[in-house]
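can u pls check wat happens w/ D-galactaro-1,5-lactone
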Amino acid sequence: MKTILITGAAGDVGTHLRRELASKYVVRASDLRPVRKKFSAKEKFIKADISKFSDALRITKGVDAIVHLGGYSVEGPWEGILSANLIGCYNVFEAARRNGVKRIVFPTSNHAVGFYRRDQTIDHNVYPRPDSRYGVSKVFGEALGRLYTDKYGMEMVMIRIGNVNPKPIDKRRLSIWISPRDIAQLVSIGIDRPGIKFEIVYGISRNKRAWYDNSNAYRLGYQPQDDAEDFAKEILSREIPGDPTAELYQGGIFCAVEEVPNPAAPPKKTKAKGKKK
Ligand code: 15L
């Protein structure tokens, strides 16, 4: 049985994966915070901060493959993204190389390509169009993976994940949803399929409303079991139209412009409470 390291193991996706993969691999789970539950007697938890290289070296030693989920999984402040997603990702890939771990599965994100429009179908060859600092950090991970394949012969599977959930939660997710068992299948292909150099696939179920041409995943043997369409009627009946920019693009609300405070602007006047006329 292969031993795999899952970083960011205490998060939602990490928890789904540990449960689904518990009988297939010996799982070494790592995170800043402890995992709430272990899914097999063989599962081992190691607390680690991947923004420290010494921690990354420690956790990657002696494993057959790495599923690198660790880091921010949504938009966040630049300092946090820089430390967890860029420095953290570099540390894990470089530590893997030094420890002789060849295979990395990197769950990147739909937000690496979130500025493609919803009326477009995109495949694994499109140029990235990140929709956020978070999306940019995922593009960084994809580029770093490409470098480590081309320069060091490492084997990389980049899964641009849509949204992992037991059920799709809204209209946008009808296009990008992936069930826990489908993401587990895709990650297993990423760990086990021989002959991988560098691959990009989309982490979605067999959704009727998909924006992605996921033929590269199918070529590698992916056979998704689920389709978000089974939940469409229920979801669409309660859907309220959202921000028009967000509705246009695949990344949704991540594409909306944030209000940036202008330091030169005079402070806004607030109405004083209880002032006499
Ligand atoms: C992601 O990349 C995030 O990790 C997840 O939390 C969701 O925001 C998802 O994308 C999504 O777009 O629904």
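The pocket of D-galactaro-1,5-lactone is lined by residues 73-74, 109-111, 161, 163, 173 (CB under 6 Å).
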